[in-house]
Design goal:
Elements (H helix, E strand, L loop, with lengths): L6 H23 L5 H7 L1 H13 L14 H10 L6 H25 L5 H19 L2
Helix pairs in contact: 2-3, 3-6, 5-6
């Protein structure tokens, strides 16, 4: 058997990963997955975002237009948050995107899907850990 570091083993692992994600890659190549889609436009990310806004009592942020780039959307949202709340809000957005990315990878590479509620809970847990480590 090949050692994990051998070229044959690496090639075999790469081939297996390629086959496992081939259908997802076809979706990406078709242009349906983009940073905007993943971070703000797909139904799943919208569901997580809506639940986060409810949990953090930020329902007024639902009125912000989702048109344009992720950066533009984030800047428009950020303007609606008080200066005192921006650090927490920025953490919320960063962990929201991080958990969406992790969910995308779970679905692509492990064939495992989490619910909107589960991913939203992961974001909240990440924020609580950040708060415990660094303060409010």
């Amino acid at each position: 058997m090949d050692s994990p570091a051998s070229e044959d083993s690496y090639s075999r692992q790469f081939a297996e990963a390629w086959l496992a994600t081939r259908s997802h890659l076809q979706v990406v190549q078709a242009g349906t997955e983009s940073i905007n889609h993943l971070c703000k436009d797909c139904t799943f990310s919208k569901g997580v975002w809506d639940l986060l806004l409810s949990w953090f009592n930020k329902n007024d942020l639902r009125t912000v237009s989702q048109q344009g780039s992720v950066y533009g959307w984030w800047k428009r949202l950020r303007r609606m948050v008080t200066t005192q709340e921006r650090r927490l809000f920025d953490g919320l957005v960063i962990y929201f995107w991080w958990e969406l990315w992790k969910e995308r990878n779970r679905r692509s590479f492990q064939n495992v899907e989490r619910s909107v509620l589960a991913v939203t809970s992961f974001v909240k847990e990440d924020l609580n850990l950040r708060r415990a480590a660094f303060g409010p």
